[in-house]
Amino acid sequence: MSKSFEPLIKKNKNSLLEKNVSIKGTNEFDRTPLRPIITPSKIDRPSEQKIEQQSQEKSIPDNFFKATKTAKLSPDVLLRLNTLKPFIEELEETDKSTVNDMMQMLIECYVNTRLTTRQREGYNQMYAHLFEHSKK
Length: 136
Description:
5 helices
């Protein structure tokens, strides 16, 4: 009875269980990066003159009032606008009236005639605020 037992299943020595993996920084949970993204020597601080020049340059861009997006208007709406053109006195004076001009005219007319004084003031303030932010 002195026979030695041999296992039926032999383990390979190259299994993942036997390999140790060390990961650096496993206990570091702060948000500071290992290397700074911007080195302090590369930081360019704008002088006061540059800031003043930039504030003066923030004028209204010319392309802000140009129609740059495709109007998704139905043929019915375009027909109504073109039919309405001869009846709008302000647009008769101009040589070429665009859909943008007509829409602007109709918006102003609606704001001035249909909105109450309080609503009109609120609309004008909201428009002025959004207009200022769109320049930036």
